[in-house]
Amino acid sequence: KAARLVGIDAEVLLERKDPESDMWIGRARRNAPEVDSVVFVKNLPPIASAGEFVNVRYTAQQDYDMEAVSI
Question: Is the pLDDT assigned to residue 1 strictly greater than 70?
Fold first, then answer.
């Protein structure tokens, strides 16, 4: 089901930056906190901050999680 999202644009709420990968971890409106998958977002500007909504394009699926790039 999640694989169908690759190539689709969405709005994601940034929650925190992953220090290991340097990507932001966020969730789309369809994802419940602490229950559903997360979105790993790349290519965000240095001024990005937790609590901010950003537009992304899904680029890949990792098990239940998604990867995306900022657009």
Answer: no
What b-and-e string marks burial along 5-43, b requiring 16 or more CB atoms within 10 Å of the CB? beeeebebbbeebeeeeebbbbbbeebeeeeebbbbbee
pTM above 0.85, yes or no: yes
Nearest partner of 24 among 68, 60, 71, judged by Cα: 68
Is residue 68 within 8 Å of 11, Cβ to Cβ? Answer: no
Q: Measuring CA to CA, which residue among 50, 44, 2 is closest to residue 21?
A: 44
* Dihedral angle, C-alpha 27, 29, 34, 35, nearest 10 °: -120
Q: Beta strand 39-42 with 53-62: parallel, antiparallel or unpaired? A: unpaired
Mean pLDDT of 10-19: 94
